[in-house]
Amino acid sequence: MSKYCSFFFDIFGFNFNIIKRLVKTKILIILTSFLIVFFSFSQEKSKDSLYYLELSKAINKHKSEVNLKKAYSFFKSKSLDSSLFYSMKQLNLKKENKNIANLCHYIRGISFYRKKIFSESKNELKKVNENFKFYNLVKLTLGQIALEQREFKKATSYFDALSKLPEEEYLLINKSTVLTNLGLSYFHQKNHKKAGPYFIQSIQIQEEEKDTIKLIGSYGNMASFYYNQYKDDLAIPYFEKAYQLTKKIKDFDLKRRTTKNMAVVEENRKNYKKALIYRKEYEQWKDSLNDQNKIWAVAKLEKDFAVKEKQKEVSLLQTENKLKVAERNGLLYSAIILLVLLLTSIYFYRDKVKKNKIIASQKENLDALNATKDKLFSIVSHDLRTSVNALKTSNASLLDNLASKNITALGNLLKKNSAIVNGAYSLLDNLLNWALLQTKQGYFNITSMRLFFIVEQVAYNYKPILLDKAIGFENMVTKKDMVYADQESLKIILRNLLDNAIKFSNPNGIIKVYSKNNSDNYCDLIVEDNGLGISNETRLKLLEDSVLLTKKEHENVIGTGLGLQLCKSMIKKNKGKFTIESELGKGTKMIVSLPKTEPNG
Amino acid sequence: MDNVNVLIIEDTSAESDALIQVLEANNYTIAGVARSFKEALTLFYKTEVDVVIIDIFLNGVPDGITFAETINTIPNTSKPFVFLTSSTNRQVFERAKLTQPFSFLMKPFNELEVLYAIEMAVEQFYAQKDVFFNDDEDTVISSEHLFIKKGKSLKKVLIANIIYIDVEEKYCNIITENEKFVILISLTKILKLLDNSIFHRTHRNFIVNAKHIIEIIPTDNLILLTGNRKVTLSERYKDILKKVRTLK
Fold first, then answer.
1. Residue A137, Cβ density class (10 Å: 0-12 exposed, 13-18 middle, ≥19 buried)
2. Which of A443, A461, A479 sits opposite B135 (nearest CB)?
3. Are residues B89 and B80 in contact, defined by beta-carbon separation less than 8 angstroms?
4. Which tens digit of pLDDT belongs to each residue from A540-558?
5. Residues on chain A touching B89 (C-beta within 8 angstroms)
6. Does the interface predicted TM-score (ipTM) exceed 0.90?
7. Cβ pair A72, A55 in contact under 8 A
8. DSSP conformation letters of A84-145
9. Which of A64, A575, B51, B198 has its CA 20 to 30 A from that of A380?
10. Which residues of chain B have a Cβ shorter than 8 Å from any chain A Cβ?
């Protein structure tokens, strides 16, 4: 017997010193074990879904409280530590709302209870206000804790209060559980009289609900209740009932316990044969249980292994993914950098091309200018050489005539010489003015002046040559005409125009200078001759804004074209306009339009 | 009428000779020819000068400008001047231009250009622009002289010598002790330019030099002037009696 005893003690680890009868001890141990298993069932099975529904309703009233929600969701999924953590977080926020506090304390209490930390659970649950919606559940749990902690009187008071509730309050509470627990409380206080009816009542309820598992527990309780009072006759039918019921279910553990109880009972009745049969069955169930446990363990191991493998795979994939992302990012960045490089190089390339174009055009321009200069240089030097050569030969004949004292010939020669010198001088003068204009070294000051007097002054120098060539000249500019111009440059312009007019006039021709006031802003000064005239083509060429010297139409008449270029530049600088009207054989009109001076301006 | 006196400051005798020839041909009097800055100053203050022709470069340095700057420092003694130059070099011109009023003559010059430059200088100096080249006027009035354009040349008349002026529409008859001639100038302009403490209007047509008044006979509306000249005094201008110092 003592051997059995120690055996049972080993299995269940409960030390019930109060019970003296050794045989009975074994049974009681089994009984209590029943009861404890029985509690944990009580809430989870029948009313679970309704319970969580109600609880979530209560939680959802406080939608903004994230921590509370999290605590609840962890609570529902039985992650008790997380639930405890978030409920504590929620409590630390110190919200005034009592309902939230109640919910938190409740969740914490139940969580602790489920973790079998009963004292903490009790503390939390005691903080729950009595107005709390689920206060009955609180009471139930407190009662169960009291039962666990062997404070049977307290437990009795909790359960007693609960058992007296009206029927509609039992929505979330299993009445049979309350009654069973009440019975147990009384039973442990040796108050068999009171305990009995509660056990019977709970059995009745469970029979009505056809809750097999609970019934087995209750039958067990009932049996041990009677057995403990040595009412073996009453106890045994309950043991048997429990045993018979287990045949309908698959729970090896329950089967094992009822079978073991039967074995102990038969053994106590000295019916060893039956006891042996039960014992064997018990062994079988135990093996089955062990097997099942083993299978479960193996399955669990396999599952763990599989999970680990999956985890490995997942982490591998993750790292692979990471690598891929890194690779992709690298590619992207390098692509962007390349693109930027490409764009900048394109930009610089285009810039360079543009610059090159500008440089090329400038070079072209410079080349053209240089060519012009060279051409100008050669023409001017050629002209000058011709003039000087003419002077040389003329001087030689002068000396000859001086020697022969031919005075009339001397006069003619000197006249010729002075004409040559005059031509050369005007060429040099133009050259100098051109240079001054190009280098912007000349003095330039636009003032108001009377056109007539300027024309008179310039024409004065041409009187001898006009007379000599028998060309008529008329200055018909009205004295009233006033223009804005730089005096010296206006004189240069006029000199060149008169030079040209004389050059292209036939003997006995006539040159007229007159003004026209066709416009509000400009006064036209016209130098007109009735000489050779120029073709339209040449005319347009002369008016072109080119720096290139125009080719001479009248090859026999010496000239560089410099004069007209100078005129155009000067007129432009004086903010004037220049046009030519001409007809071959009939004459040319050179028209210079200059800004007018307002009368009294 | 007197000739206008011109002082020539020119270091090259060929140039000065050419100038002298042109000027004398046009009835100008040559007050002198200076070859250097110093000589020029001496001549300028010693002789009576109406116009100065200054060569910018004297012996290679722009002393001509310095001379102009010098005479300009004493406003009342300054005279109209013309710069003579052979180049339009900008730097030189910019400096010369500071000696306002500024008129210049480019070498080589012809007769017309010389005369034009002198006339321009006189116009500009006395701030009466566009007088000599305008058909409506021919006289520039300075504080001492009338400068009158006669043909191609310029003449001057000492204002102190004018006895009275007889205005006839846009002409003015100038009567001096020895002469009588016509100038072209508007009445308003002449009244504005003459010193109104000396010249007084006595009639719609008469302006009288108070210094030449011998006797005023208000009863006959007559003013007797030097050289037995008589001028009418109209009622409207009788306040001349208050202005002119008379024996009571």
1. buried
2. A479
3. no
4. 888 876 655 554 544 444 4
5. 441-443
6. no
7. yes
8. HHHHHHHHHT--S-HHHHHHHHHHHHHHHHHTT-HHHHHHHHHTS-TT-TTHHHHHHHHHHH
9. A575
10. 88-90, 92-94, 97, 106, 110-113, 116, 130, 133-135
